[in-house]
Amino acid sequence: MANIRLSNISKRFGNTDVLNGIDLDINDREFVTLVGPSGCGKSTLLRILAGLESADTGTVSIDDTDVTRIRPADRNLSMVFQSYALYPHLSVAQNMLTPLKLRDLSFPQRLPLIGPLLAKTEYKTLYQQIKNTAQILKIENLLDRKPGQLSGGQRQRAALGRAMVRDPLAFLMDEPLSNLDAALRVHMRSELTQLHQRLRATFVYVTHDQSEALTMSDKMAVMMKGKILQYGPPDEVYHNPQTIDVARFIGSPAINIIPGSTDETGCVSLFGKSLETHVSYPHSTLHIGLRPEHLSLSENNGNSFPGIIRHIENLGSDLFYHLETEGMSQRIVVRSSQSEGKRLPLGSLTYFKAQKNKLLIFGESGNRLTVKSQKLAEVA
Ligand SMILES: Nc1ncnc2c1ncn2[C@@H]1O[C@H](COP(=O)(O)OP(=O)(O)OP(=O)(O)O)[C@@H](O)[C@H]1O
Ligand SMILES: [Mg+2]
After folding, report:
1. Nearest CA to ligand 1 atom 28
2. Pairing outcome for strands 285-290 and 256-262
3. Is the C-beta atom of 42 inside 6 A of ligand 1?
4. What is the rounded average pLDDT of the residues 26-52?
5. What topology does CATH give the domain 253-374?
6. What CATH architecture applies to the domain 4-244?
7. According to CATH, where is 3.40.50.300 located in the chain?
8. Packing angle between helix 92-102 and helix 152-164, nearest 10 degrees?
9. Which ligand is nearest the CA of 40, by number?
10. SS3 state of residue 143
11. Does residue 345 carry a pLDDT above 80?
12. Distance (Å, rounded) from C-alpha 271 to C-alpha 261?
């Protein structure tokens, strides 16, 4: 069991507020990611949870026990770092033994050689424990190697193995995949989620990579400037961002943010065309968010907008057309499913339309506005 509760956590380094009154509830067995741009305070928050850093205000509780003043070793949490932090002179098996040794399992001062030669039953049990963990991680055949003789992915798994042998209440991971190449990172993402399912333990995972957070988490906490802007399941955060900052940060290619306005009735216009959608703010300037997949190329008709193709991003399954539109400095990105041999030429004029029910409307302050009424008879 590990229900984790962070209440009103604040932290200041010198004159800088790094965390401002963070509240976060993590349920037992959830995979929660802390995601946000560099410097927003993710690692600091994780370190406060681990007890490696102290908070200026607030409390950390695990299963309703206040652990704010309890030292890291006694919180029974395992931390996996970006740098793996493996001992280079020890084998994988010996590395995996160190946390057990640190927890005072009456180990002799010098680590014994680990392997089938071990005689004592005590060591045999521990060796079996390490072998079982290695089996789950598929590194059984690497137990005698030193970290320098492993690939990045194998080193990562050894570091995970070391965290696992302790059977902790929760696993805390700070960007554990960022040293891996792109293909291995994607592979390890799915391995980690499978591992989470198998271990049925609480995972708190820090990343600055929104796609990692979207693919792996049960819930994601989007952090910026020391605050949690939104906390919820990936689908909710992606489809229902509550602020323009969250909308911009989550999703790749990024959401299109287009300036819009309302007339005296609160009716929203985009590029001077009414969208037959109303909000409660007449005579206002707005930001309209439309994800590339909610736009599509179209005929030139009363409901479409013109754009000149300036760039085409080919992702194999999809094409993303980057369009220049009048009066906008940024390009509008439109997704189009790949149909072989049918690609519009660069520099040509095309038209695009928007799925009205997917509009995300933000006020000038960046907060999401609720749509009061919308005519959805037709996709505009
Ligand atoms: N020990 C420290 N002393 C002073 N400032 C610090 C210290 N640790 C972190 N900071 C500052 O606190 C802010 C948050 O740092 P933190 O490491 O939590 O960010 P992060 O979100 O993990 O970023 P990244 O994605 O780059 O790892 C940064 O501005 C950082 O420079
Ligand atoms: Mg960090």
Report:
1. 39
2. antiparallel
3. yes
4. 97
5. OB fold (Dihydrolipoamide Acetyltransferase, E2P) (2.40.50)
6. 3-Layer(aba) Sandwich (3.40)
7. 4-244
8. 30
9. 1
10. coil
11. yes
12. 9
